[in-house]
Amino acid sequence: MSHHYSGPNFGFPYGDARLDLTDLYAFLKPGDASKSILIMNVHPSVSETPRGPTTAEPFAPEALYELKMDTDGDTVADIAYRVRFTLGRDGAQTAILRRMDGPQAAGTGDGGQLIVESAPVSLGRDARVTQVADYRFFAGWRSDPFFCDVEGTKNGLRFTGDDFFADKDVCSIALEVPNSAFGSKKVRIWARTLVRQLDEGEGWVQVDRGALPAQTNVLTGEEKDAYIAGAPVDDARFLTVFAHSLEHMGGYSPQEARRVAGTLLPDILPYDPLRPASFPVNGRTLIEDAFDSFLAVLTNGKITEDKVGPHNDLIAEFPYLGPPHKAAR
């Protein structure tokens, strides 16, 4: 199920839906190959355990939402975009976007170069977009673009084409950036959410992270908590548990399972802005069937589709995600 419900027992990190990372996308801006679109989706509108709607407040003011980028291939962030949300007296949220470079990008904190300040968070159908210089920014409720037969996944991969996410919403953080912002070179991207913990010396604690869909929920086994708390640079330590899961689910030989596990780790999304996006080798668009790609890997080619296709409510302009199904939540 993509990265939805990455907490214990298909719940949320710390039991808070606002902290739950769902999907990551990176693709060239339609009609303008000099710019790229980066989208980090969080906060599913519906809980699985127990089933029901989540909180109406889009983002957690006590959290950080980050996009990390490695530009030199060492799987350590060289660029980071950090978003923090504030709550106004009227209950409306606004967003602050900052950028960090170099060693600061690899760390954890609330500083950096201010890019966008006091950007309004969208609650209704109309997308409230903020533009500052070459950047465009959006944050708020939108239609969830992920598509998947969740019940078929839970029912032994027996799919009927029932798209669980067809009428669901999600909270999106979308950036339009000039390709020069990351050096017009190939980058490796991941996302994460963090909260401040008083019992940890008032430092920031990572509560969710990821880039590639589904594998966090399916392949991590008993190492899921350690995986979510980890960083891509250390993902080699999860090779054995990934391989074991692939042996069990896909019938791979031990040697082949380790080889395939190595293609899934580290958990990063490669993206070259000089080429069109094509998942999983280069970015990810909103219409690519990432779950089918994962199914083929998980089952060693025995199952290649869940009979569900892209949603038809995407829009032709930034932020490209369709309006929420339940506007003005």
Question: Your description of this structure?
Answer:
Helices cover 16% and strands 32% of the residues. The chain has 329 residues and is α+β, with helices and mostly antiparallel strands. It has one domain (8-298). The strands form three sheets. Strands 5, 6, 7, 8, 12, 13 and 14 form a seven-stranded antiparallel sheet that branches. Strands 1-2-11-10-9 form a five-stranded antiparallel sheet, with no helix packed on it. A two-stranded antiparallel sheet has the order 3-4. α5 packs across α6. The protein is globular and about 55 Å long. The model has no long low-confidence stretch (mean pLDDT 93).
Helix segment tally: 7
Count the beta strands: 14
Kindly give the count of domains: 1
- C-alpha geometry: globular
Q: What's the overall average pLDDT, rounded?
A: 93
CA distance, first residue to last residue: 24 Å
Strand content: 25-35%
SSE-based structural type: alpha+beta
Quaternary state of this entry equals: single chain
Helix content: 10-25%
Uncertain segments are: none
The major pleated sheet works out as:
7 strands, antiparallel
Radius of gyration: 19 Å
SSE pattern, N- to C-terminal: EEEEEEEHEEEHEEEHHHHEH
